[in-house]
Amino acid sequence: MKKNLRKITAVLTAAMVLTVLTGCSKGSQDGGDTNNSGNTSNSGNSSGGKGSTLQVSLDHSYSSEKVTIDGIGEAGDFHKIGDNFLIASYDSTTHEEELFLYYPADGTSKPFKFNYPQTIPQNEEAWNMSGFPTADNNFCVIYSHSRNSQDENGDYTYENLGYVMETYDMEMNLLETKELDISDDMNFGNVYPAPDGNYYVTIWDNNTGAQTVGIFDKDFQQVGTLGGSMNYLQGIYTLADGSACACYQDDSWNMVMGKIDPATNEITPIEIEGMPAWFNQCFASTDSNYDIYVSDSTSIYGVSLANGKAEEVVNWINSDFIGNYIGNVCQLSDGKFMISSNNADYTHSDMWKLSPRDPSELENVKLLSLSTFYPDDNVLQAVNVFNRSNDEYRIAIYDYSKLLDNTGENYEEILKKFKDDMTSGIVADIICTDSVPYESLASKGIFADLTDRVNALDTNKYFTNAINTLKYGDKLYRMGFSFQLMTVEGKTELVGDKQGKTVSEYLDMIQNLPEGVNAFTSDMTKMYALNQLAASNLNAFVDVTNHTCTFNSPEFVRLLEFCNTYPDETNQNMDDRSEEEWEKYWAEESYQYINNKTLLRSVYISDLRDAYQERMQYFGDAPVTYIGFPTSENGGNGGVLTFNSTLAISANTAYPDQCWQFFESMLTEDYQESLSWSFPLSREAFDKKATEEMKPQTYKDENGEIVDVPFTVYRGSEEVKYPDMPQSFVDELKAYIENTTTGNYYDETILNIGEEEAGMYFSGDQTAQAAADMIQSRVSIYLSEQS
After folding, report:
1. Which of 200-209, 315-324, 685-694 has the lowest mean pLDDT?
2. pLDDT attached to residue 72
3. Assuming Cys at both sites, which of 181, 500, 634, 775 could form a disulfide with 638, CB separation 3.0 to 4.6 Å?
4. 38: confidence class by pLDDT, cuts 50, 70, 90
5. Positive or negative, the Cα torsion across 761, 766, 770, 775?
C-alpha cells in the first residue's frame, strides 16, 4: 500500500514545546525528508492502517552550567543561607570532609578547613545531628557528644554527655554555644526556621521509632508540638506572606501540602491539582508565581497555594539530568535553580546551575520519541549522553507512569493503555518493552527486526549469547545492554559437576538425598518450591515462539507432588524468639550449606565481588557447581539471564539509523564501564570490572596510611578470613555466563493461573493431574490469544 506522507511543520514556542508525530510512517534510511524543518518526523499510515500520533515535547527544558569551586572535592549536601551556599565536600584523595562557602553572584568561593565542633574536648566523640540556617542568615549545628573511657582492667565505660548547639556567622566565626536540655530518648532530624523566630524540629523517639514535629523557641527549649494527620514530615517553609507551609505524608502515607495555623499549631491540608503522587523533596520559591516547589524523579513542579495548582517547571530528562540522581535543589533569587547531581553509583556528586534553555538551541532539532513505563535509570543516562552529544537529533520521553493517579489504583488501566496505543498504531520510535506483553506485540509486526544489525557485532567483543536470549523465534526485536544471572548452586560433592538438569533429573536428585540433607532452606513452602522449580524458568514448560506449553506432562505432575510435601506456610515465629534463640537460628542458617544440611541455594548475581562474598559465606572453599533451574530436554546449563531493561525500535520509524545509533551509544566502552549492579555486554568492560574487584578493599588509618581490608566473612560467632577474589572464580563465572542460552521469561498471567490451580491441588480440592490439566488448558488458550 502506498503511504501518504504529510509534512508537519512544528512551531517552537516561547515555552519550547515540540510536538512530534512519530512511529507512524516509513521514512528514508537517512532520517526522513531532508527538507523537514527538524522538529517532527514524517507521518502517514501506521502499520495497523490508521494514521496516528504519539506526542512528545521538550517542554520545560533548562540548560545547565557546572559550578566549579576551586579546591572542592565531591560536592555533597548544601544549605542555602540567604543568597549564598554552605556546601559539604568530600576529598576522595585525602578522605577528608570540608566545608565551602559559595557566592553565586560572582561565582567565588571560600573554604573552611576546621575541625568542628569547636567546643567539644578532643577526648569526646561528637555526632552531627542536624545543620540549619537561622532567620538572620547564620548557621547552626547540633551535636550529640559522648565519652568512652577504659579503666586499668580494660573495661570500657560509655557516658552520654547530651547535646550541644553551635552558631556560626557566614565567616564561620563561632558566635554562641548552648548546652541543650533534651531527653536521651530523642534523636534530632531536620530543623526548619519558623516565621516567628522559633523552630520546627523533626524528632525521632529512640524507643518507638515514631516521628513527631516539635516546636522550639529561640533558646531551643521545646514549647509545643505540631498537630495534624501526619506520619512523616518532608519539610516546612516560610512563604512570602509570612505564613508556614508543610509538605508531609498523612496517616495514609499520601503526599500532602498544608498551611500551619500559628494559633493552634495545627496543619490544615490544601487540595493541590496536578501535584505528583510522590515527591522526594520540597523547597522555597523566589518566583512570585509560586509559593513553593516540589521535586520528584521526573520534574520540578511549582505550586500556587492560592490557585490550588501545581505545574511542571523543569523536566529533568529534557534538561539532561536523571531525577533519581538529584540531591539537593533550591532556587536562587534570580529564578535560576541550583542542584547537586550524583553519578550512577553515588560515588561522586557535582553542582549545577540551571536556567531556561535558549529556544535557538533547539530550532533545528529532530525528535526521536521513546515510550516507557517507569524508565530505567541506565536508559535515562544513555538518553542524556545522546542528547548532550547530538546537535541534530534529540530523544524525548513519553512516560506512561505519569498518567497514574495519586493512589496508583489505575496501574493496570495505564499498562493496558500503553499496549492498546501500540496495537492501534500509536508507537514511539523507541519502545521500552519491560512493562508490556512483548511476545504478543512482537507477533503483530510492531517492532523492527534487529538481527542483521546485531549479527554485525563482534562476538569477541560482546556477550552476544546474552543478546540472543532475547530472540523471538529466529528474529531479534529488542535489545538489552546489561544483565544479571539467576541460577542455583550446590556443593559439588552432593550435586555433581553437571551444569543443567532436566525436570526429571532434578526431581531424582532432590527426592533421593542422603538422610539429614534438605533440598531447600527451612523456610520453604509449597508455593515457594513451585516458584523455584517452575516459575523461575518458565521456558522449561512454555514454547513462547510456537505458543504451546507442556504443563500436563508427567514431569510437571511429579513436580507438583513434590512441592506438596512442604507446608503451606513456614512455622517460624520470628517475633517470639529470644536473643539466644536468634543467635542459634542464625548460626544454623550460616552453616547449613557447609555442614551439608541444605543442598540448593538460589542466587541472583549482578556483581562479582558480592557473588564471591556469598560463595565464601555459605560454602567456604568447598567446590561448588552451578546446576541452574530445571530445564527442558537440551535446555542448556540451567542459568537464566535477565536484563535490566530492553528496548525495541518501531518497524515504522522514520529514523531507524538514528535509533540504532542510540543503541550503539549504549555499547560503547564508556557506557558499558559506567554500569553498576549488573554485568556489561562488553567483554572488555567485564574484564576491567573484574580486575578492579579482585583488588583488596582499603581504608585510611589514623596515621594516614592506606591499609588493606582482609576479606572476611562471619558465620554465627565465627570470623573467617579468605583470600581476595581470585582469577579462577572470575573465570568460572564468566564461562558459565558465556554458556547460558536462556533468557528470563516472565508472564504474570501464566504465573497466576499456575498458582490458582496448584493452590487448589495443595488444598485438596483437586488432584495433581487435574491441576496440571487445568493449567495446560488455560495457558494454551491464553497463548493462542497472544499469537
Report:
1. 200-209
2. 73
3. 500
4. very low
5. negative
- pLDDT > 50? residue 22: no
Strand partners, 702: none
- Whether 645 and 617 have beta carbons less than 8 Å apart is answered as no
Q: Are 70 and 379 in contact (CB under 8 A)?
A: no
Contact 72, 340 (CB under 8 A): no
76 has a pLDDT exceeding 60 = yes
The DSSP letter of residue 223 is: E
**C-alpha span between 223 and 217 (Å, rounded):** 7
384-391 own/partner pairs: CB under 8 Å, 24+ apart: 384/317, 384/320, 384/321, 384/322, 385/665, 385/671, 386/662, 386/665, 387/320, 388/320, 391/364, 391/365
Q: First and final CA of the chain: distance in angstroms?
A: 24
Instruction: Give the H or E element holding residue 686.
Output: helix 683-693
Contact 646, 476 (CB under 8 A): no
Residue type, 2: K
CB 714 within 8 A of CB 726: no
Other beta carbons within 10 Å of 95: 12
Which has the higher per-residue pLDDT, 370 or 57?
370
Largest CA distance in the chain: 95
Question: What is the pLDDT averaged over residues 744-756?
Answer: 94
At 323, which amino acid appears? G
pLDDT of 25 over the 70 cut: no
Judged by DSSP in three states, 280 sits in: coil
CB 746: neighbour CB atoms within 10 A?
A: 13
Model pLDDT for residues 530-567, shown as the tens digit of each residue: 999 998 889 899 998 899 999 999 999 999 999 999 99
Phi, psi for residue 598 in degrees, rounded to 5: -130, 140
Average pLDDT over residues 638-644: 95
d(CA 686, CA 740): 16
- Find out whether 297 and 45 touch, Cβ atoms under 8 Å: no
647-676: buried (b, 16+ CB within 10 Å) or exposed (e) per residue?
A: bbbbbbbbbbebbbebbebbbeeebbbbbb
Can you give the pTM of this predicted structure?
Answer: 0.82
CB contact at 8 A, 198 and 218: yes
**Is 540:610 a contact under the CB 8 Å cutoff?**
no
Q: Write down the mean pLDDT value for the chain.
A: 85
Secondary structure (DSSP) of 518-565: BSS-TT--HHHHHHHHTGGGGGGTEETTTTEE-TTSHHHHHHHHHHTT
Beta partners for residue 339, in sequence order? 329, 352
Estimate the crossing angle of helix 727-738 against helix 683-693, to 10 degrees: 150
pLDDT at 733 over 50: yes
Distance CA 70, CA 332 (A): 21
CA 655/CA 394 separation, integer angstroms: 12
Please report the domains of the chain, with CATH numbers, ordered by start residue.
1-61+361-478+647-677 (3.40.190.10), 114-170 (no CATH), 483-644+684-786 (3.40.190)
256 - beta bridge partners?
Answer: 248
* Mean pLDDT within 218-222: 86
Strand boundaries in 387-480, DSSP class E: 393-399, 430-432, 479-480
Q: For position 575, what pLDDT does the model report?
A: 64
Cα–Cα distance for residue pair 767/765, rounded to 1 Å: 7
Res. 84: pLDDT tops 70: yes
Eight-state DSSP code of residue 687: H
Cβ 350 vs Cβ 337: under 8 Å: no
Dihedral sign (CA 288, 290, 291, 296) = negative
Mean pLDDT of 389-418: 88
| C-alpha of 203 from chain center | 28
What is the chain's Cα-based Rg? 30
Lowest-pLDDT range of 333-347, 378-392, 511-525: 333-347
Closest CA to 8 of 54, 62, 61, 59: 54
